[in-house]
Amino acid sequence: MFEFFEAIENSWLISSISGSNLLYGTFTAMHYFTLFILTGTAVAFDLHLLGFVAKKQTTADFADEVFPWIWTAMGFALFSGFTLFLTGAGEFYSAPSMQRKILVVLVAIACTVFIQRGAQRWGKESSLPVSAKLSAVVSIVLWIWGILEGNNVAALCGLG
Amino acid sequence: MNDLLLPFCKWLQNQPFALAVSGSLWAYPYVQLIHYAGLSIWVGTTLLVDLRLMGLVRRRENAAQFAKNLNALSWIGFTIAVIGGFLLFSGSAETYFLNAAFRIKFPLFLFGIAYHGFLQWKESDWGQSDPLPGAAKLAALGEILIWLAVVTAATRIPNN
Questions:
Q1: Of A100, A135, B111, B144, which has the fewest CB atoms closer than 10 Å, so is most exposed?
Q2: Omega of the bond prior to B131 within 30 degrees of 0, cis?
Q3: For residue B15, which phi and psi values (nearest 5 degrees)?
Q4: How far is A73 from chain B (nearest CA, A)?
Q5: Is this prediction's ipTM beyond 0.90?
Q6: With an 8 Å Cβ cutoff, are B29 and A66 in contact?
């Protein structure tokens, strides 16, 4: 496995990115910027479910406004994150902090899918069920945990 | 200016709270977490409002109401980000002060705050009509570019 990731890391395309200040800097900035958008918008929706944000707006309508941008930001964050991973794949794939980060992010994404599906159903009810509030709390914890693990990964490549 | 600020930075980084951040292995990632969590909320909610002003968010309510729903959360995120950022800065104030990327980031950040204040003041006016005036779309695009520049400059701090 190590040889496989080393080969990808040393391929022409990936070494061009890691060897270029401009390209590597662009992917890093894209990753941070879109992660902030993703986490911020996801947490904003979670706080709506908990009754703290957009109180006058219905859950279904707020979901229609927010979720397209959660998924757009996630697309850019995953693309830039995967590219940055490949620039240090040999070291990253076996790093416990990277493995934890990937796991936490995957669970957070699954939680976001669950919340989006639920939002359409919950939005028709007069008051939000406990499961909506509980999933919002879990989602907030997961995204904060994801940031913490991301900090540890950034420290591996001298960015933390 | 340097003659005034550099001694202040040296004084700041020797304060007990600053020494606690810089001298502890476990405190730094958590202070970083506070900064990034606050930034996520600030950037995520600010950009959502900007995208709404640009007509890129589904119209379930007018832009002024949409902005009003998120403004309080934006400023809470901002406060958290500033507290975390101040603690991070104070831990290595002299190094940050002399860092070329930080010297770009900080004035851009101050400009971004002033620009956001202006935009928030205009939102209630522009946001009543749909479609929104061209000036609103241009101003919102301007804010997205400012925060993208702030984040890009911040990601360059470790490399300078």
A1: B111
A2: yes
A3: -75, 150
A4: 10
A5: yes
A6: no
If we measure between CA atoms, which residue out of A17, A143, A155, A36 comes closest to residue A95? Answer: A155
Alpha carbons A137 and A52: distance in angstroms, whole number: 12
B144, B88 in Cβ contact below 8 A?
no
Distances (CA, A) of B87 to A43, A87, B28, B141: 23, 31, 9, 31
Which among B58, B151, B152 is the nearest to A65, CB-wise? B58
**What pTM was estimated for this model as a whole?**
0.93
pLDDT 10s digits, B109-157: 999 999 999 999 998 888 888 788 999 999 999 999 999 999 999 999 9
Residue A109 burial by Cβ neighbours in a 10 Å radius (0-12, 13-18, 19+): middle
Q: How far apart are CA A69 and CA B134, in angstroms?
A: 22
Task: Inform me whether the C-beta atom of residue B73 falls under 8 Å from chain A C-beta atoms.
Answer: yes
- Round to whole Å and give the CA distance between B135 and B82: 30
Amino acid making up residue A90: G
| DSSP summary character for residue A52 | S
SS3 (DSSP) at B125: helix
Tokens of B102: 């930080």
Mean residue pLDDT of chain B comes to 93
Q: What letter would DSSP give residue B158?
A: G
